[in-house]
Amino acid sequence: MEKSISQAPSQGLQSTQPNGPWGGLAAAVKAAPRDEGLAPKRTFLFRDVANVYADVVPGRDTNRLPTVAMWVAIFGDLYVDEITRADVEAAMRELLARPAVKYAGIDHATGQKIYRQHGQRAPATLNRMLSVLSSVFKFAQNRPKEVPPHRWQRFLSSSHPLPTAAVQRLEVPRPIDRTLPPDDVQSLLVYAKANPWPRMYLFVLLLLTSGARRSEVLFLRGRDLDLASATPTAALHTTKNEEPRRLVLTPAVVREIRRIGVPASDDFLFPARMARAAGKPYAVDAPFGRLAKRAGLTTQRMHDLRHTAGGMLADEGRSVLEIADVLGHKDVRSTQRYAHRSVKAKAALIESSSLAKLR
């Protein structure tokens, strides 16, 4: 039996406005004939499951939420057990064919939001979008350990085949080396010390020395810091990979934290400065962009500091597994981008050792 996906109005994360960021995409997918596949029990709408997912999983990378909203715009009016692999593949084809659309401001004449095309999505971006959808379905089947039992129920039978499981990921080209040169690293640190935001130097230093993600550092609170132990650390209770881990704090980082003051237990290490943003971490994106320009960097990507940490470890001959552990990569394949650098460092080490003299 074929049908078209319902285009009923939406709530919560869903956004299906004709002029919205996903309006055309959602309409194209919904207009395509589809086979119901397994007979659904019609218990929970995908929209409702996705809203619970976004609400109850603490510390989740907030960058995922727009992607969750996109999937809700497409599948929100379907029941979670009637979404099939074919539906997901159809959506992925549309995402691949259509340019990305981003918010560009307000039309003051009409008061409506303006969205502009920004080129085709990269294969890695599409794979991340698929991973987010897969996370929602896994959440529907199994309660994450950080979610209290009273805030979760089984939305989808654990025996139900996940519609994302067999969808083929796109081949991703070899990643560009985004490690900052040593001169750029030093320039960034020098300018960070003179930045108007007094915590910028600590922020940059912590990213570079720990290899942590931006969101992981911004959401650190006083209770997460252990500065008194022989090996000072910062606890990351929930991460992008949904697994807790600890950042090792270097002596320089510990000194800077003590200099600016250790925050109270519930306070952020990097709190917002404006009263209207009280209770939130500092909005660092724009200040960091200005800092990068002043320091003469060719990139303003904050994530490149994480790549720099991985690259520096590889240059010292650290193994891919060691780098993955520091960076918190759940899948070691994410760390393979540093493998060639690690091999070069190990080759240099062996060539300068007594091993090279054996005949």
Question: Can I get a quick summary?
Answer:
This protein has 359 residues and is mainly alpha-helical. It is 40% helix and 8% strand.
Strands, helices and their partners?
Layout: E1 2-3, H1 23-31, E2 34-35, H2 46-56, H3 65-75, H4 85-97, E3 99-106, E4 113-120, H5 123-141, H6 182-193, H7 200-210, H8 214-218, E5 225-226, E6 233-236, E7 245-248, H9 251-260, H10 285-294, H11 303-315, H12 320-327, H13 339-351
Antiparallel strand pairs: 1-2, 3-4, 5-6, 6-7
**How does the helix and strand content classify structurally?**
mainly alpha
Mean pLDDT: 81
Question: Which architecture of the largest domain does the CATH hierarchy give at level 2?
Answer: Orthogonal Bundle
Rg to the nearest angstrom? 23 Å
Query: Which parts are unreliable, with pLDDT below 50 for 5 consecutive residues or more?
Result: 1-19
**Number of alpha- plus pi-helical segments:** 13
Percent helix range: 40-55%
Name of the CATH superfamily of the largest domain: Intergrase catalytic core
Question: Which of globular, elongated, flat, extended, rod-shaped describes the shape?
Answer: globular
Q: What is the CATH domain class of the largest domain?
A: Mainly Alpha
- Tell me how many strands there are: 7
H-E string: EHEHHHEEHHHHEEEHHHHH
Strand content is: 5-15%
User: Span between N and C termini?
Assistant: 74 Å
- Spatial strand arrangement across the major sheet: 5-6-7
CATH topology of the largest domain: hpI Integrase, Chain A
Q: Give the biggest beta sheet.
A: 3 strands, antiparallel
